[in-house]
Specification:
The complex is a heterodimer of chains A (about 400) and B (about 270). Chain A is built from eight helices and 19 strands. In chain A, helix 6 links the parallel strand 6 and strand 7. Chain A is elongated. Chain B has one domain. Chain B is about 65% helix and about 0% strand. Chain B has 13 helices and no strands. In chain B, helix 3 crosses helix 6, helix 8 runs parallel beside helix 12 and helix 11 packs across helix 12. The longest helix of chain B has 25 residues. The radius of gyration of chain B is 19 Å and the shape is globular. The chains are: A alpha/beta (about 400), B mainly alpha (about 270). The interface between A and B is medium-sized, with 29 and 23 residues.
Chain lengths: ~400, ~270
């Protein structure tokens, strides 16, 4: 890339926050002249480098707290890097937070002009743009009402409208597109396409892979303060999905288990058996899986029904399997029961098991979130499938005529 | 710090570049104070007028106070009012400066904003009020038959106060972000400073021995100068010029300090 084609350039940017236990420690630190430390350090960004060309749109994905917003704040000059450098060539318009800088006591019209003033446009320069801003925001007569009376949708529409109509060279959008309704989002997309064709450089931070894929030429994943190399959006998104999957393990869902029932018959333990060959112990789609439960009955019990429910992380029950025990076969003492799944037909994600045992009109033991496991769809037969849609991989035959 | 902080140009350039925004901020600041009040912006006139009426009643009729060594001319309460206008520009600016940045965390953290003009907002708003005070002074001087042509120099003579005020405001606004206590301390100091400035008495009423220390206060010479023009006596230009020079220095250093510490604002708020 030629140097005058570069809109934003970051070189080895590191941002470290000093965390003070008490506000006064900051003052002590000032007078300590570096002889003593009254703070801990937190590195929000670590050695981030990239170049973004004119007219290029970049997407940044990453989990909360991974440093995405810090990066945007550094580009916009709100924060200064602890080391390294960021240069942005041209007027930067940043939508980091909805209507930050809007004064709720003043009308939409007043705020539009004020926002313009903040970006360095005089009233005379804003006047020809005003109608376009108002039309785009589409808030009707509310434009002359105090902003505090606005709904959050109207708020974001007006804020976004101003930000894209001040003719920025660089536009930074942090997770604000999510607020408007579908029609407004479509309008935003159209406007962003327009800006793209005019050579505006755009950085979009979003959790919505669909938006990133539609808007961005290249994308990168931010993870614990480090930025992955900029790659085509589609590649980055699948990398991101895998990372999310890896990172998900730390909070065990069984910590949120819930039990009730008479416990005359109860589950002593529930677990998953199966061959796991991935590094993080998750099961492959289409591998065989076995749900096992050790049970104990305090006295002979018949007419027992036992059910395993397999739930996705969103509490959707993906599968149930029930067995009813007749009078001949009664439970007494310890038993081990198991349900065999020859092929685990689940897609990538985390799942948990609810185990339920009921007697005649009586709940013996319901154990929610008794066990958990994760599945990784990375099988030769499903190599090109994206893993984040659906929860069930259907078995069947394709016919191609 | 390096020597280039003594270059006043960046402060002036920023000011010129953002003059429209600054104007808007000051307008908002003034309007917001009176928004919702029944008399609205009329209070900008009413409150100094009421204050002056009370001064006239208490000092003119009850105390029958006289300015030392003054036989005729401007009544005591107008002499006092004169000094008060000048001092209040500084006092109001400085008292409000401590919160001028801290009360807008979203300007610091969420949007691209020229923060260095924020401490100028209290100054601008103080100057707006001073303008109306001046009109009242002008009318009152004319009404009591003491109008001297020198009164037209009044606004020009304020320059050192403006510079001192804005310089102090930049320092205090930056410190105010980190030290909340300033909001309590500064108004007290301002009140003390008022009694240590020749507002209620002329500087030559101060005992000769204390004069060298007393004259360190740069506001003193400005208040004296302004009062001289209004009364029509000779202006102590040399002392005034010294204040002007000091004001320029304070303003330049203040801006440099503010810009130097602004990188930490976002972390502290």
């Amino acid at each position: 890339m030629r140097s005058d084609d570069i809109a934003i350039s970051a070189r080895n940017v590191t941002k470290t926050y000093r965390l003070f236990g008490h506000p006064n420690d900051r003052i002590k630190q000032f007078f300590a002249l570096g002889l003593r430390r009254y703070h801990r350090e937190f590195t929000a960004l670590q050695g981030v480098s990239f170049d973004i060309g004119r007219g290029e749109t970049i997407g940044i994905v990453g989990r909360n707290g991974s440093g995405k917003s810090t990066l945007l704040q550094l580009i916009s000059g709100i924060l200064k890097p602890t080391s390294g450098s960021v240069t942005a060539n041209g007027r930067v318009s940043a939508l980091l937070e909805l209507g930050a800088g809007f004064n709720p006591e003043f009308t939409g019209r007043e705020n539009v002009y004020f926002q313009g003033a903040i970006m360095g446009l005089s009233k005379a320069e804003m006047e020809p743009r005003f109608d376009a801003i108002a039309t785009f925001a589409d808030i009707g007569e509310f434009i002359d009402q105090p902003v505090r009376t606005y709904s959050s949708g109207m708020f974001v529409r007006l804020a976004f409208s101003v930000a894209v109509h001040v003719e920025p060279d660089i536009l930074l959008i942090d997770e604000v597109l999510a607020v408007g309704d579908a029609i407004f989002q479509q309008k935003c997309f159209d406007r962003i396409y327009q800006l793209q064709s005019r050579g505006v450089s755009i950085i979009v931070v979003s959790h919505n892979p669909y938006q990133i894929e539609r808007l961005c030429h290249r994308a990168a994943v931010m993870r614990k303060g480090s930025l992955s190399p900029l790659r085509p959006a589609r590649e980055t998104l699948s990398l991101y999905r895998e990372l999310v999957h890896q990172d998900m393990a730390p909070v065990p869902i069984t910590a949120m288990e819930h039990r009730d029932g008479t416990h005359d018959l109860h589950f002593e333990q529930v677990f998953i058996e199966g061959a796991s060959d991935t590094a993080d112990g998750s099961y492959r789609t289409n591998a065989s899986l076995r749900i096992v439960a050790d049970m104990r009955a305090e006295y002979p019990l018949d007419n027992v029904r036992i059910r395993f429910e397999l739930c996705s992380a969103t509490e959707l029950i993906a599968m149930i399997s029930t067995i009813g025990l007749t009078e001949e076969k009664c439970f007494h003492g310890r038993h081990r029961i198991a349900f065999n799944m020859p092929r685990c037909q689940l897609t990538t994600g985390r799942y948990h098991i609810n185990a339920v045992a009921v007697g005649k009109n009586i709940r013996l033991d319901t154990w929610q979130r008794a066990a958990e496991f994760s599945v990784l769809l990375k099988d030769e037969t499903a190599l090109n499938l994206s893993g984040d849609n659906g929860i069930y991989v259907c078995q069947g035959d394709w016919e191609i005529a | 710090m390096r020597l280039e902080v003594l270059n006043p140009y960046p402060a002036v350039a920023s000011l010129i570049h953002h003059r429209y925004l600054l104007g808007q901020l000051i307008k908002r600041d003034v309007l917001l104070r009176y928004r919702g009040a029944m008399f609205g912006v009329l209070w900008i006139f009413l409150s100094p007028l009421l204050m002056l009426a009370i001064f006239a009643f208490v000092f003119g009729h009850i105390f029958q106070a006289r300015w030392p060594e003054q036989r005729e001319g401007l009544p005591f309460w107008l002499m006092l009012y004169c000094g008060l206008i000048v001092f209040n520009i500084f006092g109001e600016t400085v008292s409000r400066a401590t919160t001028s940045v801290r009360s807008f965390p979203s300007y610091v953290k969420k949007i691209i904003f020229p923060l260095d003009i924020l401490p100028l907002v209290p100054l601008g708003s103080a100057l707006v009020h001073a303008f109306f005070n001046f009109l009242i002074l002008f009318a009152a001087a004319a009404w009591t038959g003491n109008l001297s042509p020198g009164i037209l120099l009044f606004p020009l003579l304020l320059l050192p106060v403006v510079l001192l005020g804005v310089g102090a405001a930049w320092f205090l606004a930056a410190w105010g972000v980190f030290i909340k206590d300033l909001t309590q301390v500064v108004p007290l100091l301002v009140q003390m400073l008022m009694f240590l400035s020749p507002v209620f008495y002329p500087a030559n009423a101060v005992p000769e021995a204390l004069r060298p220390i007393y004259n360190v206060n740069p506001l003193g010479s400005v208040i004296e100068a302004v009062r001289s023009t209004v009364v029509g006596t000779s202006v102590p230009w040399l002392a005034w010029a010294a204040s002007l020079a000091l004001g320029t220095l304070v303003a330049t250093l203040g801006h440099a300090f503010f810009q130097h510490s602004r990188d930490e604002f976002a972390d502290a708020l």
